[in-house]
């Protein structure tokens, strides 16, 4: 019974994420289509035809879909990648080769990552377990201004499979980390932040897609 409930909850979370992605793709496609349609109407009025309008709009929609597929498969500028990371559950503290940790051996329990915002630093071993479940871990240090931290809190709290916490030891003001992926940012307004979240929240790099981001550690 418990297993069935967990499976159902995971399916609901995946559906919510896919719906958010679908809405974003639809919004981008709609804006693109409106722009093309307006231009096409002007051209049609001058050329005296309607077929061109339909063909142009459909063609631009297909181009936009292809563009988005390419974006998902193209590395984000500045991101770092680590392959073949170990995935053992260990009771001890782990020395990770990157800061913040982006994968490797980790604790048995994961940090809650259902849009959770933590005011204090969290154990890396538990955060890495959340990454294994497909979460994106957003961190910041003392260089990040209060306005940026506020933006990060708002963004993460609306994003399933994500968590936010301070990380004093990292070099950049803001860092976003997924399993085997990491990107350093100077400001929360950097558009690569949204790109990273869209691409790696439950992305193809996830070792355990659909695994829970609830019922883990909260402090």
Automatic annotation (TrEMBL):
Keyword Iron appears in the UniProt entry: no
Entry keyword Transmembrane: yes
Compositionally biased tracts (Basic and acidic residues): 11-27, 60-70
Transmembrane parts of this sequence: 34-55
InterPro entries referenced in this protein's UniProt entry, alphabetically: DUF3105
Protein name: DUF3105 domain-containing protein
Keywords: Membrane, Transmembrane, Transmembrane helix
